[in-house]
Amino acid sequence: MWKIAYHIDPLCPSSSGVERMQGCNSSVIAAVSISIRNLFTLMPPPSSIENNEDFRAFCSGGKSAKIALSDLTARNIALLCCSDNNVNENKGKNMFSVKPLCSRQKMMQQYSNDVAVAIADGKKKKRLQWAKKRRAKSDQSSSSSSLTLHYSPCVLERTDVYCSSSAEEDGVLHMMLRIMDNHPQQRNDNNGNDNSSDDEKKIDAMIIENNTSCSENGNDYGEREEFLKKFLCKLASSLFNNEITAKQQQQQQLKNSTTPLLRHVATIVLQDRLRALLKSSSMNAVAFIADGSILPRKSGASNSPMSCPPALPFRAPDETDLSKILNVDMGVLINYLDESYAGSGYLEKMGEQDGRSEGMLQIRGLVVPKGVTLIVGGGYHGKSTLLRTIAAGVYNKVPGDGRERCVTIEDAVTVRAEDGRYVNNCNVSAFISNLPSMPGADGKTNVIDTTKFSTREASGSTSQASNVIDTVEMGASAMLIDEDVSAANFMARDGRMRALVMDESITPLLYRVNGLYISKGISSVVVVGGVGDWLDVPDNVILMNRYMPNDALKKAQSISRQFSYGHVEYAGRGVVHRLPWDRTGTPLQRRPDKSTINGFHDPEVEVLDGGLRIALLGDDVEDDDNDVDQNSKHLEDDEFGTIDMSRCEQLLGNREQLYGCGLCLAWLLGFAKSNPGLGIRDLLARMDEALDGSEGMRDVLQRFPGIMQTDCLHSIENSLWENIGFAYRPRKFEVAMALSRMRGVRFENVPEEDDEAARAEAEAEREAERRKKELLDLWNNRRKGKNKK
Predict the structure, then answer these.
(1) N or C terminus of the chain with fewer C-beta within 10 Å?
(2) pLDDT on residue 278
């Protein structure tokens, strides 16, 4: 039933070339798998799989159910590891213990206590042991809270626990576990040398299936197998009953006792189906915030919801177009949803009536329509909290998060200013023009070509302009912008400043948001609190007052008419604050140039600054292009290959997801080498196809383009285990951000093809302009005739 393979642990002192210290734990990696069908046969009470209603409900969830199973399994592994799995029934220390995969730094922290006690003697040893017991007692009481901080509240695909597809079965659950040897000194001689046999060291190829004993390979591994079997039994039990989830229920305020796995699955499937409704023609929306949701967090450093009270459950305004009731067909999974909102008017299950199916669910909440939406209000009234909820809605959340019924379309991207970011060959001419360059030897100042803008240290305005253009180029359908973290001169300019500074290089975003939506279909959700000019452009206005939303569109339109009376056109190019999107401002598709691709033949991802940055390390590149701009010569950049993603706010998986960005970026550059004609958007589409394969993120690890040697693939996986432990799957937009921010990267434009559709679109635009001019001339002539009379 359980299939287990042991692999050498790169963090084990003997395997990493580090001299084994007395008292320092040794470890191996156990790769465990079980078919999902067999997993459900372990569910109490025993029954045939054909009569198992829970299994049928699980299968109705499709891929979403498998992702939910992987996520809950990973969380329960962590919960079991910080509970009593290291202590046997007689309260004695087990020979082995199971740990989730983690980085070298965390492993050394785990080793430090044992090593300190082993090398100490006398009173010092007793003091250390006493201190260790106190810390252990403290850790036991706070294990639940620390775990909550470690794991993201978002449900993300990962490399260490995942489900693969199988043609013969309903899928297979895979997990990678680290088994620690708690008493390695028993296998050392008096001089500290390892007396393990050669057979014991060759554990990489050992397979255990259907309870087959491996004691013939060494008693150590027979004991290890028995301990692992007991742990796996506890893990399987935790998926189907509430033995280890009592603390979770108290912490996450879960009120029903539904099977944890099916509750997890139902919650994830509900969010996916809500998100699918947003993209339907009847909704045409960016986001949905359900009534009863708890949006604020305990603190800025916590992912846990604020307790209620003082937090107020979210409530959409009454009798407005922003409030809607969504009907979601959950099928049999409706019976497994947490009912903490039931009976409060937030959630209602529908029976068979009016042609609806029995599994129909009604949810009321606030809809953020497509177009330009403003979120306004006073300070500390919940504007940014609402925007952060919308930004987090691109991911599914776990039950009890408080925002598990708040969803956003998958391709919504947060845009902000990033002073100092790296930019190469970016067409920012829609926002930035007439930039002066540094004076030359003759004292003359030239104008920078902003259709191919490059810099190593972007300002606030140029960095945010580059971020908007990157968003357009990558095919996002919504931008999420907070005034608090944006460049003020990029967001808006009032009439007084326009009168004072006539030669301004920046066209503010305020003038472009309507053109972006009309021409490109890109919506904008903007938090505004200090610039009233934004009231001239919105299609929707949400006014936050004491953490509650109100529809303020009519009032905003009235104020706009009152204050904008008599305003002139902006530079003669359009009505007040509403410029059309120029075709010349549309970014061309870019691709990494040959020198960038060849510079990362065998890439390696390194974590920097405690997880705020990563570096993609590769071979050095010779620069044969003497005409390349000085800004692009990456050989002179001391930080070549480093990527600062600290201000990319939708990387909610922390450094594990950042490391996943690095892995996907390395895969993308390898794929680009064999497909040099593809632009970034096409490369990202191919990457997503690979990630959607049978094994998800594992496919990226095991099938790097251009790397066929098994030892190289093992090196990539060992580097992952050593640096971070595991990685989360990122969205393609975060991978694109990592690529465009990588210092030293060079882009070239993909040659435009002679596209008939593009020519027809350009001709239609010219014809529309001609007709508009004719109508204007006709109107002017009529007015002149009336004036003569």
Answers:
(1) C
(2) 95
